[in-house]
Amino acid sequence: MSGGQAQSPVSTQKDGDSSPSSMYEVQRAEVSLMVTKDSGLRAKAEITNRGLLSVAVLVSSILLSTAVLVHVAITADRRRR
Predict the structure, then answer these.
(1) Residue whose C-alpha is closest to residue 53's, from 30, 28, 22
(2) What is the pLDDT, as a whole number, of residue 20?
């Protein structure tokens, strides 16, 4: 968040519904790690549930395609022998 201003999660509301949609709620994480007295790391991350779902789909597709490539490579290697 920039400028120290608090931002509210983006919400989509249906008629008569006052609660924000769970797909647009913002998830926040913060970590601070001190390695020595003078050096360390601090990180903040924000992502919506929709963005988190998109990342999960991308990672899943990468893992599945890697499994297919390994299977094809092993099968092709066995045929050569």
Answers:
(1) 22
(2) 58
